[in-house]
Design brief:
heterodimer; A: mainly beta; 7-stranded mixed sheet; about 50% strand; globular; B: mainly beta; 4-stranded antiparallel sheet; about 0% helix
Chain lengths: ~110, ~120
C-alpha cells in the first residue's frame, strides 16, 4: 500500500498571505495526486487533480506542483473562506489520503 | 447538475449491520466508479472501496474487507454500502464520491452520513 505523509498538520497564516502544504508518497505516484478542501458538514471539494490541474471554477490562487514522491499545494492571497482542512490523495495505485492540514487565519 | 444524495444518520447497536445509500443524479450512473470514504471523528479520510455500476465489480481497501460490502441498483441509480458486525470503531461519517474510470480522482461527493454505534 502507498502511504502519504502530509505536513504540516496545522498552520496559521494572515489574510492576503500564502501557505504551502506538502505530501510525500512512499513510492513514485506518477503525478496522480489530488488536493481537496474540506469544511465541516460537507463533502470534500476537489481543487486540483493530476498534480497541478485546477478543477473548473477553482481560482488560480490555488496551485500544485511536484513529481515522483514529492508534491506541494499552495494557496496565495488567503481569504476568510479558505479556512478548512486540506487533504492530498494519491490515486496512482488505488487510493490513499494524507493526514490532513488544518488551516487557520491569524 | 451532478448530485449524490446520501441517506440520513443512523444509530445502531454493536454487532448489528447498517446499510447506507447514495442516490446519484445529473450524470450517467454507469459512467463512473462510486467510492466510499470514512472519516472518524477528528481523524483523516480513509478510502474504503469502490464499485463499478457498469458491471458491479468492486475493489476494497484491505482494512475494510469483510467489514464493508458495496453494491449498486442501476434501476434507481443508487449505490449502497453495508457495514457488518459494527463496533464503536465504526462510528464515523461516511461519504460516497464518484470518479472517472480512467484513473480519476473523486470529483463529486455526497454530503456524508453519520453512523453512531452505541447500545
Amino acid at each position: 500500500d502507498i502511504q502519504m505523509t502530509q505536513s504540516p498538520s496545522s498552520l496559521s497564516a494572515s489574510l492576503g498571505g500564502k501557505v504551502t502544504i506538502t505530501c510525500k508518497a512512499s513510492q513514485d505516484i506518477n503525478k496522480y495526486i489530488a488536493w481537496y478542501q474540506h469544511k465541516s458538514g460537507k463533502g470534500p471539494r476537489l481543487l486540483i487533480h493530476y498534480t497541478s490541474t485546477l478543477q473548473p471554477g477553482i481560482p488560480s490562487r490555488f496551485s500544485g506542483s511536484g513529481s515522483g514522491r514529492d508534491y506541494s499545494f499552495s494557496i496565495s492571497n488567503l481569504e476568510p473562506e479558505d479556512i478548512a482542512t486540506y487533504y492530498c490523495l494519491q490515486y496512482d495505485n488505488l487510493y490513499t489520503f494524507g493526514g490532513g492540514t488544518k488551516l487557520e487565519i491569524k | 447538475e451532478v448530485q449524490l444524495q446520501q441517506s440520513g444518520p443512523d444509530l445502531v447497536k454493536p454487532g448489528a449491520s447498517v446499510k447506507i445509500s447514495c442516490k446519484a443524479s445529473g450524470y450517467s450512473f454507469t459512467g463512473f466508479y462510486m467510492h466510499w470514504v470514512k472519516q472518524s471523528h477528528g481523524k483523516s479520510l480513509e478510502w474504503i472501496g469502490r464499485v463499478s455500476p457498469k458491471n458491479g465489480g468492486t475493489n476494497y481497501n484491505q482494512k475494510f474487507k469483510g467489514k464493508a460490502r458495496l453494491t449498486v441498483d442501476m434501476s434507481s441509480s443508487t449505490a449502497y454500502m453495508e457495514l457488518r458486525s459494527l463496533t464503536s470503531e465504526d462510528s464515523a461519517v461516511y461519504y460516497c464520491a464518484r470518479s472517472y474510470y480512467d484513473q480519476g480522482a473523486m470529483d463529486y461527493w455526497g454530503q456524508g452520513t453519520s453512523v453512531t454505534v452505541s447500545s
